[in-house]
Amino acid sequence: MVVMANEVKTKGVSLFDKLFEKAEEVIINVRGKNKYVVIDIERYKELRAMELDKAYDNAMADIAAGRYTTDLEAHFKEIENALHD
Fold first, then answer.
1. Quick check: helix, strand or coil at residue 30?
2. Burial 56-82 (b: 16+ CB within 10 A, else e)
3. How many domains does the chain have?
4. Which residues of the chain fall short of a pLDDT of 50?
5. Which one, 3, 7, 31, 67, has the greatest CB density within 10 A?
6. Domain hosting residue 27, numbered range
7. Using CA atoms, how far apart are residues 53 and 50, in angstroms rounded to an integer?
8. pTM confidence score
C-alpha cells in the first residue's frame, strides 16, 4: 500500500493503524518517489531476526572455509585498506 507523505503529515501516525488493517507494510511516497517503508514492530523484529540469523550463518561458513584471521594487526590493516578503496 502506498501513501503520500502529505497525508502522513496531515493525519499523523494514527493513519498507520488504519492502513495496517489492510496491508502489512506501507510505502511512503515523497514527491512522486517511493522513499520509505513502514512496518509493524513485530514484523520488524521478525525481519531483524532473519537478518541476524543470516549474518551468523555467513560467519560460520567463513570459519568453516578458513576465511578468518586471529592476527589483529593484519585484520586492522585489512579494514584500513578497505576504507581507503
1. strand
2. eeeeeeeeeeeeeeeeeeeeeeeeeee
3. 2
4. none
5. 3
6. 2-39
7. 5
8. 0.67
